[in-house]
Amino acid sequence: MYEPIRTKSVHSTMAGTTSDFPHRSREEELDIQLAGHLAALLAVTDELRAQAPSTDLDTAAERLAQQVARLRGGRTPVRAVASGSREASLTALHERAHTLAGRALVVAASRADTAVAILVAERMDAHSAALSGGELTPAG
User: Fold this and answer.
1) Which of 5, 19, 62, 91 has its CA 20 to 30 A from that of 117?
2) How much is the pLDDT for 26?
């Protein structure tokens, strides 16, 4: 009725062979993911600094840049010069920064990176305070 399969399955041949491309460990993958989240948070922080300069944001940006560089093996993150001419509202920027910090916190926790977890938890608190405390008027 049915003819038996005469060739080997693609899945069985791939499972038994070693590939030519390098594989990353879970730790390396988490480092890459965490560096990406922190770099995105740094970009939003720089945008916030351009619209509403503060020493808190300056300090946070420097700390974020240090952590990204550490996770990327010493390579400093590329930072865009934010001109402040974009019309993104401060509320939207703080919401985006809070979300990015939350994502970074999840990865930092799974990686057991206490320094980053503390940093992003502080940033989440700062962005929550800015959202609820009315610190959303641009300094100009």
Assistant:
1) 91
2) 85
Q: Select from 25, 27, 28, 52 the least CA-distant residue to 127.
A: 52
Kindly tell me the burial class for residue 117, based on how many C-beta atoms sit within 10 Å of its own C-beta (0-12, 13-18, 19 or more). Answer: middle
Closest to 79 in 3D by CA, of 91, 97, 61: 61
* Token pair recorded at residue 97: 């920064």
Instruction: Name the pTM for this structure.
Output: 0.75
How far apart are alpha carbons 100 and 138 in whole angstroms?
Answer: 21
The answer to whether 93 touches 81, Cβ cutoff 8 Å, is: no
Q: Which two tokens stand for residue 137?
A: 């008027």
Backbone angles phi, psi at 42, to 5 degrees: -65, -40
Name the token pair of 129: 């305070």
Q: pLDDT, tens digit, for every residue of 85-122?
A: 555 689 999 999 999 999 999 999 999 999 999 999 99
Alpha-carbon gap, residue 102 to 22, rounded angstroms: 30
**Residue 8: how many CA atoms within 13 Å on its side-chain side?**
7
Average pLDDT value for the chain: 83
